[in-house]
Structure prediction request, 51 residues.
Amino acid sequence: MPQMMPLFWMMMIILTITLLIICSSYIYFLYLPSLTFNKSKLSAPCYWNWK
Prediction:
């Protein structure tokens, strides 16, 4: 059992980093069009076409 602990912690760290990257990119793509919509009208349609 003690041999499994480093692997477990490495998996937890990788999972946490992956979740952080996914959440930050999701928030970034969600809020970027609303912030830049007033400056350029092309941002929102491009965002919707991305999805």
Notes: The two ends are 44 Å apart (CA to CA). The chain has a mean pLDDT of 75. DSSP finds two helices and no strands in the chain.
